[in-house]
Amino acid sequence: MWDELMVLAAVSGSILRVGIADGRVETLVGDAGSFPDGIVVESGTVYWTTMGTPTVDPAKGSGEAAQDFSRRNGGLHAMQLDGTGRRDVVSPGTITTGKQLTSDGAGFLYWCDREGRRVGGVRTDGSGLTDLVVNPPGDISQECVGVAVDPVHGYLYWTQKGPAKGGKGRIFRAGLELPTGESPERRTDIELLWSDLPEPIDLHLDGDWLYWTDRGASPGGNTLNRASIPAAGASGEPPQILASGFAETIGLAVDPAAGVAYVSDLGGHIRAVPLPGGPAEEAGEHDIASLSHPLTGIAGLSSR
Q1: pTM of the full structure
Q2: For 223-247, what is each residue's pLDDT tens digit?
Q3: CA-to-CA distance for 270 and 290, rounded, in angstroms?
Q4: Measured between alpha carbons, how far is residue 203 from residues 19, 215, 297 in Å?
Q5: Is the four-CA dihedral 138, 180, 174, 150 of positive or negative sign?
């Protein structure tokens, strides 16, 4: 069971350590890079992605709507849990817009590159850099955001959120290995599992369940969802909404031993959501912390 969370503060570019029991918040790193988004902890090392520095077009309004992340200046970084030994896992300019990050638990990292319209992977030492999925240029529907892996069965899952509040979000599955003779741009094993979702963001796979956050329009959006993994060739069944009412929900981490999902949102909230039938079900939903700045990726940590 976890006793701490590692949480990314997007605008300030910080990595936070948050106590689950008392809501204590400490800043581990205050200069994690421009717009950190995805985070994972493996073997005492923290890995995180950055979206990079956007250009701003005032003609498009203000805030997120005016930001253009299409410049290739995102990144994938690492450091020890005490904040030392910081390094770039891949060379600057390798990633356009680093989004959710996950691990197979055996030394290989996977991430989504939103404006790069791809899902990539690399070993924790920076070797073995590869693209697994590369979508063609086009509209926003081709952009990849959330990612999860199933190394036991050899599957990769990812989200393509579609336009903001557009109701055109999708979740896909493909093999962790490219089919023989095929390329990331042209692979025949991609399955569309869910479509017409409000705006799916981050994923988490636990056993036969796939969990995801959705920042789309109500009633299906700004929610935490789960659905059972469909069989090969089958579409996913309608998801079960586990929690709602978030403020632009993004980050997701599930602690199966505690029976709790932890969700972060752009409103600065970190909420604990007990899972149905789990040991924490009677505790009910509650905020662990409410901060004054937007939060993105989240990962669990046990200090024991």
Answers
A1: 0.97
A2: 999 999 999 999 999 999 999 999 9
A3: 6
A4: 23, 13, 11
A5: negative
